[in-house]
Each structure stands twice: as C-alpha cells, then as structure tokens.
C-alpha cells in the first residue's frame, strides 16, 4: 500500500499533471509537494539570485511560491490537502534523497526550456535511475 507520495514540482504544466496523477492514483495517500530551487552552479543561471540573496531561504521560498500556490489550488479541486516543502540544491539529488522517506515518487517527464534541459540534465531520468522507491513519470 502506498501511504506517502512525493511529488516534486516546478511551475511547469508537466509538474502539475504529475500532481493530478498522484491525486487520482493515490487518493488516500499523504502527498508532499516538493519544490527544489537549484543551488549555485558553475554556469550560475537562474540560481544567481539565490546565491546573491541576503536571505537564501527566503529567496528560495519566494521562488517556489507560484508553483506551490498552483499545487495547493489543484489539491483543493480534489478536496485534498498537500504538505509543501522547499529545498535548495541540485534537483535530482535532493529529490532522490527525499524519496527515501516516501513509498513512491510521481514527477513530470520534463520541464523548463530546451536550454535548461541541455545544461541542467534530465532530472526525471536521474531520479528514475537512482530512486530507492518506485517512480512514476507523467507526460
């Protein structure tokens, strides 16, 4: 029985589809929506504002707010509640580490622009290969 499900999200439509799938498939499970703000990288990119922020955690929470608000609204459509978390670091590693505390992971197949996927790598692929629990990838 799947009692705890991790749903990593960004603000993409694929991530929101994954959340809907989790709510449909596991209606009685405790669902945690996780937003990972990428940590500073050699290429810097979108993480620059976090690295230069006076309050790193507050900046990560602010970056996650739109995606988490959308996730809460979707959960409300299902008359469900979700727990939300924000973490900072390399998304695939953070998701895999968090997965150990859950029975399953449900995530979108891809997100972001083509250039982000080329430079950052395919998070879904890394999670599928490394997760200690079953992973469902939603397209």
Automatic annotation (TrEMBL):
SUPFAM superfamilies: Adenine nucleotide alpha hydrolases-like (SSF52402). It comes from the Archaea. Residues 1-139 form the UspA domain. Belongs to the universal stress protein A family. PANTHER family: STRESS RESPONSE PROTEIN NHAX, UNIVERSAL STRESS PROTEIN. This is Universal stress protein. It comes from Haloplanus rubicundus.
